[in-house]
From TrEMBL:
Transmembrane segments: none annotated. Residues 98-246 form the BioF2-like acetyltransferase domain. The keyword Zinc does not apply. This is Acetyltransferase (GNAT) domain-containing protein. InterPro entries: Acyl_CoA_acyltransferase, BioF2-like_GNAT_dom. Gene3D superfamilies: 3.40.630.30. One of its GO terms (molecular function) is transferase activity. The keyword Transferase applies. Keywords: Transferase.
C-alpha cells in the first residue's frame, strides 16, 4: 500500500508549495487557495502529514471520499498574532512588563547612539552580489554562535542548497532578508519565508561582538514593525522552545499529525494502522522515551572532540578619566589584526554610551595591555 509522508510546515514555508491533495489552507479568517487544476488525490494511498500548525485548517480534495484523523503532536510552535494590536509599540506594551520594555528601548537607544545603524528588509529585490555576501555573513555568524555553545546547527550542512534556493524566492517576494547594519557591516541577519500574510523567521543570527546590545530582541521588534506596516497577520517563529520564542509569542500551539485514508477496504485498514503507529510515537514522546534513548546512544558513542570554550583571562581596570599614559600606540579597530579587541570595545561602549567616533583605542607599547578611552571614561584591559 502506497503512503505519502509529508511535513507540512517546511513544505508551505521553505518549499513555498501547497500539497496538491489540498484544495485550500485557511488561518485567522484568511484563505489560501491552491493553484487551479492542481488539486488531486489518489484514493489508493494513505496520506500522513505531520507538523501541521493547529491554527491552520486544511481542506482536502474530494474530502467526502476520505476518513481523516488529527493527532496532537508533542511538538510546540510559537507565533505572534498581530490582529489584536495596532502597532509593534502597542504589542510591546500589552505583552511585556515595564522592565522588559525599558531594557529593550534602552538597548535600541544605545545601539543607535554608539553606531551608525541602518535597518534594511530585502523583500522583492536584491542584487546577487549583495545576497551572496549577506548569506556568507549569516553562515559565519551561525558557525561562530554555535561553536561558542558547542552545539551543532541543523542548517549549516545544507547551506549551499538553502543559498541556491532562496535567492529567487526573495525576488519573488516569497522570502526576505532582514538586516541590521553597523555602517556597511551586517551585524544581525534574519532569513524569512513569506506565505500570504504570514512571515516565518526561519534562520537568524548576529555578530557576537555586539552581544551586549541584545540584537536578537531588537531584530524581532523591528521585524514586527515591518509586519504591522505591511498588514501581516502572523509573525511565525516555528518549532522549538527557545526562551526568546516563549517570551515574545502570544500563541503557543501544538502541531498536529493529520492522516487521510480512503473509506473503502483495504486502504482503511492501512489508515487505521498508521493512526495506531503515530499515536504510539506521540505517547512515547510525551514520556520523553526518545530523549532517553538518545542519551543512552550518546553514552555508548565514541566521544567527540569538544570545542575548548575557555577564553583567555581578561583583566579590566577602571581608570581615572584624566589619567595619562605614556608610550601609547593609537590603534584603528578596523585594521587587520585587531578583531579580537572589538567585543571589549563594544562592551565598554554599551556601558558608556557614546558614538564610536569619540572612542579611542591605544596599545601600551610592548605589552598586551590596551586603553579604551571615551569622552569622560576610560578602562585598561590586559589580555
Amino acid at each position: 500500500m502506497a503512503k505519502v509522508r509529508l511535513e507540512l510546515f517546511s513544505t508551505i514555508f521553505d518549499n513555498q508549495t501547497i500539497p496538491d491533495f489540498y484544495s485550500s489552507i485557511s488561518y485567522a479568517d484568511n484563505l489560501i487557495i491552491n493553484e487551479p487544476n492542481t488539486c488531486s488525490i489518489n484514493g489508493s494511498k494513505v496520506y500522513s502529514v505531520n507538523l501541521v500548525p493547529s491554527y491552520m485548517s486544511c481542506q482536502l480534495c474530494d474530502e467526502h471520499l476520505f476518513n481523516s484523523k488529527k493527532i496532537t503532536q508533542h511538538n510546540w510552535g510559537y507565533a505572534i498574532f498581530l490582529n489584536s494590536d495596532s502597532n509593534a509599540a502597542e504589542y510591546l506594551k500589552n505583552k511585556f512588563n515595564s522592565n522588559f520594555r525599558t531594557n529593550l528601548n534602552r538597548s535600541i537607544r544605545r545601539l543607535e547612539t554608539c553606531f551608525n545603524i541602518k535597518y534594511k528588509m530585502y523583500h522583492g529585490e536584491i542584487a546577487l552580489h549583495d545576497y551572496e555576501s549577506l548569506m556568507e555573513s549569516l553562515r559565519i555568524m551561525l558557525v561562530n554562535r554555535f561553536r561558542a555553545i558547542n552545539e551543532p546547527n541543523n542548517n549549516l550542512p545544507k547551506w549551499k542548497a538553502i543559498s541556491k534556493e532562496t535567492f529567487p524566492l526573495i525576488n519573488q517576494k516569497k522570502a526576505s532578508l532582514f538586516v541590521i547594519y553597523h555602517g556597511n557591516r551586517p551585524i544581525e541577519i534574519s532569513l524569512n519565508y513569506h506565505l500570504d500574510k504570514i512571515l516565518f523567521s526561519s534562520i537568524s543570527s548576529y555578530d557576537l561582538d555586539y552581544s551586549k546590545f541584545g540584537l536578537g530582541h531588537i531584530e524581532i521588534y523591528k521585524q514586527l514593525e515591518w509586519c504591522y506596516s505591511n498588514n501581516y497577520i502572523v509573525f511565525e517563529m516555528g518549532v522549538g522552545g527557545m526562551d526568546y520564542k516563549r517570551r515574545w509569542s502570544n500563541n503557543i500551539y501544538n502541531y498536529e499529525h493529520h492522516i487521510y485514508y480512503n473509506k473503502s477496504f483495504p486502504t482503511n485498514s492501512y489508515g487505521l494502522f498508521e493512526i495506531a503507529k503515530i499515536r504510539l510515537k506521540e505517547y512515547l514522546k510525551s514520556k520523553h522515551i526518545p530523549l532517553y534513548i538518545q542519551k543512552i546512544k550518546s553514552a555508548f558513542s565514541p566521544s567527540k572532540d569538544v570545542v575548548d570554550k575557555t577564553t583567555r583571562e581578561v583583566k579590566i581596570e577602571q581608570l581615572n578619566a584624566k589619567e595619562i599614559h605614556g608610550d601609547l600606540i593609537r590603534l584603528n579597530l578596523e585594521s587587520e589584526g585587531f578583531d579580537h579587541l572589538r567585543k571589549h570595545v563594544y562592551d565598554f561602549m554599551y556601558s558608556n554610551p557614546e558614538n564610536i567616533a569619540n572612542v579611542e583605542i591605544f596599545q601600551i607599547n610592548g605589552t598586551n595591555s590596551y586603553i579604551i578611552k571615551g569622552s569622560d571614561k576610560q578602562i585598561k584591559i590586559t589580555l
